[in-house]
Amino acid sequence: MPDRHPRAFEPMVLVVNIIMATMGAIIGLQLICYLGISTNTAIIGAMMAMIIGRIPLAIFRQFLSIHRQNLVQTAISSATFGAANSLLLPIGIPWLMGRSDLVLPMLAGVAMAMFLDALLLYFMFDSEIYPGEGIWPHGIATAEAIIAGDRGGKRARLLLYGLVGGLVGSYFKLPMAAFGNAFIANPWALSMFGVGLLTRGYSKQLVDLDINTIYVPHGVMIGAGIVALFQIVVLVIKRRKVSAETHTCNYDRVRKTLGTGFVLYITIAVILAMMTGLYTVMSPRMFAFWIMFAAIAAIVHELIVGLAAMHAGQFPAFATALIFLIIGMIIGFPTLALAVLVGFCASTGPAFADMGYDLKTGWILRGRGQNHALELDGRKQQCIAALTGFTTAAVVVFAVHAMYFQQNLFPPVDRVYVATIKAGLGNAEIGRYLLLWAIPGAIVQFLGGPTRQLGMLFGTGLLIVNPLAGWLVLAGITIRIIAIKVYGQKAQSMLYILGAGFFAGDALQSFFGSFFGSVWKLKGK
Predict the structure, then answer these.
(1) Domain with 320 in it
(2) Number of domains observed in the structure of the chain
(3) What is the pTM of this model?
(4) Residue 348 gets which letter from DSSP?
């Protein structure tokens, strides 16, 4: 273990990070426009760094360091989610509403929100709310891939078996990342996630009703989210003395971070509202209320997304932003205010979750927090690498967004947001549905407690239409339980590596299949 962590501003590291972040940003834009989602490119970045480190030139050997590989994967992962989820998605909304003049002001506002989003997780990582011991499945998968590549032997073989399985399964359209996730994530949380997926997937066949039409997923998520937020607040206001040997982030820092973050979100909301001219479409009182509501929605959205990402590796950012859009409609905000609100809300959460994944990877590689000085130094360097990725993403999106939009290429969820705003569904009816289904969501979340997040993950599953993923999740959890019962806890470390392999195989297949497929379509236009 090194005494000093490699620096993110080392010339070769910085150059490689910018190149990889540019590639990651383009990958994210291509995938979110053609596939509707952006894949986690962390493992791809780590593998690219491993390959660079094996180029037979002295200048590249520094990338044999697992810590430099960690910096590279942090940069590309940040750029991918930043460009696709935090930037392109929000700015597509005003363009589709015929307000292309608001795209650049929107880009400036959501870019500020993206940076703040990531920094808040950085300052709260390894606290009792977002502990280093937390699952963060994508982070574990990336760490196991890096360790296997470094050590070789049995770990490398297990990773290879999982990778091949992931590639083959993904080729046949099986969600192998969900299967691998079952070997890594919190089994309680993921079980509820799987139940939610199956409930959403088969509700039509079982009860002849699409539960989405009566806002069951949205209501459950609202109820669970309110209780989850209350549980976070209870943790924050409790004055516990957390030993420095337990966590590197204490309660005072968490309280200060959340308080500062809320003030900064208010500031960004004011800047965004002024740049987009919201003050011209609302009364002063409504304008002030919108600013407060937008700031609250942004910070609650990221906390909810972060909890889901930590416990199950899934973050329902699209759907949770839709929930706040619907609440805004019930309140009665005008059309333009709703468009800016949902874009602002959607820009928070993805960078927060991705920073958690990346810091979890580094936490494992640096010895699981045993050396506090190295952990804090490495975490700081990862933050710099992530900000490099986010900055690169902002430059790429600024440069190419018009090319995408002029070819009618938008994240599909943008059309959902715009259609919802234009439809103006009956507010009273929606409100009754949301209130009704919020009750079971709140009860499940309360019973599960803050460590299991049962209501949150059940709601997450209800928001996603993918019953096959539900079956694979439950199958993976069953295999995991049997393996641990037969072979003991030693089986868990093997399952982590196999799960990482399934993640890697699914990511590689999704990347090469979707990226080159989208390029082919783009050439055909």
Answers:
(1) 11-524
(2) 1
(3) 0.85
(4) S
